[in-house]
Amino acid sequence: MRDVHDNLDGIESLQDSKNIMESSVHFDNRSGYYELPMNMRFNDGHILSIAVYSSLFVFSSIANITVLVLLVKRRRKSSSRINMMLIHLAIADLLVSYHNFNLNVAF
């Protein structure tokens, strides 16, 4: 005896296989090349994200290095806990921006 849930499972598996078919690489017989699905092709959105991430990377680097240099110069005159915390914050922000922005642009 078939249940309603058995029918739903069949529909879900059909949709899953359809999604797999849409996201896979297809061979075009006319051109002789493999074609990627639309969501995997390089387009204007990728160019925009690369430009935005690159400009944020440059701005973040310049700003954090400026803050770091100013705080190190100020540290020589008078040392305080707040200045030490801000130095560590600028270093941590530089490390995060170097790793995060480069990985986002690369992938």
TrEMBL record:
It is found in: Membrane. The keyword Transmembrane applies. PROSITE patterns: G_PROTEIN_RECEP_F1_2. Residues 63-107 form the G-protein coupled receptors family 1 profile domain. Gene3D superfamilies: Rhodopsin 7-helix transmembrane proteins (1.20.1070.10). One of its GO terms (cellular component) is membrane. GO terms for molecular function: G protein-coupled receptor activity. Its main location: membrane. It comes from the Eukaryota. The chain crosses the membrane at residues 47-72. Belongs to the G-protein coupled receptor 1 family. This is G-protein coupled receptors family 1 profile domain-containing protein.
